[in-house]
Amino acid sequence: MKVYDSIADALACVQSNQTIMVGGFGLIGAPLTLIDGLIEKDANGLTIISNNLGEKGEGLGLLLQQKKVRKAIGSYFTSNRDVGDAYQAGELEIQLLPQGTLAESIRAGGAGIGGYYTKTAVGTDLAKGKETKMINGVEYIFEEALRADVALIRAHKADTLGNVIYYKTARNFNPLMATAADHVIVEVDEIVEVGQLSAEEIVTPHLFVDGLVVAKKVLTKGGIVNHDKQQEYTNVNR
Questions:
Q1: How far apart are CA 84 and CA 64, in angstroms?
Q2: CATH of 2-115+147-226, one of 3.90.550.10, 3.30.460.80, 3.40.1080.10, 3.40.630.30
Q3: I need a labelling partner for 221 at 20 to 30 A (CA). Which of 66, 123, 141, 238 fits?
Q4: What is the pLDDT of residues 28-38, one digit of tens each?
Q5: For residue 180, how far is the Cα from the chain centroid?
Q6: What's the pLDDT score for residue 233?
Q7: Is the four-CA dihedral 200, 177, 107, 172 of positive or negative sign?
Q8: 3-class secondary-structure state, position 235
C-alpha cells in the first residue's frame, strides 16, 4: 500500500478502455479529487460502474462531457440530463440495474461469486435477454457479478497501513466497491498513524487498499470547495 502525494501518480494504473468503479450517491461519497484526476488524464473508452454519473457539469458529469465514458453501469442516471442526451445521440452505452441489484452484483464480485438469481426486474424490460429459472414455483433472473480494473473510493479516515473508516451515508457503495476491483485507490480527509483507529470502526481492511490520497476537493452544504481553502465549512462527504 502506498500513500500518494500526486493524484496523477495515484491514477497511473488507469488506462483507456478499462472498467472503473466509482463510489458515491449523487455527489455524496464520491471521490471528487480522484475524479478531477481522471478529467486531467488521457484515458478514454472507459466503462464506469457507479450509481450515477455525477451531476450536470460536476463530478463524473465532467468526465461524461469530455466523452471519455463509453459505457455506464448504474441505477440512477436521471440526476444528470447529459446522460440521457449522450445516450440518445449514440455516444454512450447504458446498462441500467435496479439499485439493490447493482449493490448485490458488486458484492458478489468482491466475494468471488460469478452471479446470482433475483426476483427483481422479472417481467420487465430489464430482464430481456437474461437467463430465467423457476425456484420453488417463483421466477428468477440471473444477474452476473460486477468487477472492475480499478475502484476509486471516498472515505473519511485511513491509517498509514491502509485501514479505512467511512462517514455516515457517504459510505454508500464505497465499501462494496473496495472489494471488487483489482486495484483500489482511496481518497480520505485524513491519514493517521496505525493504532489511532478503533478496530471496531474499521470497515475496509488494509488488504483491500492499494493506494491512499488526501482529498483536495470536498462536498459541503454550500457546494464543492477546495480542501486547502482557509475557510469554515461543513464537510458532508467525509
A1: 11
A2: 3.40.1080.10
A3: 66
A4: 999 999 999 99
A5: 11
A6: 47
A7: positive
A8: strand
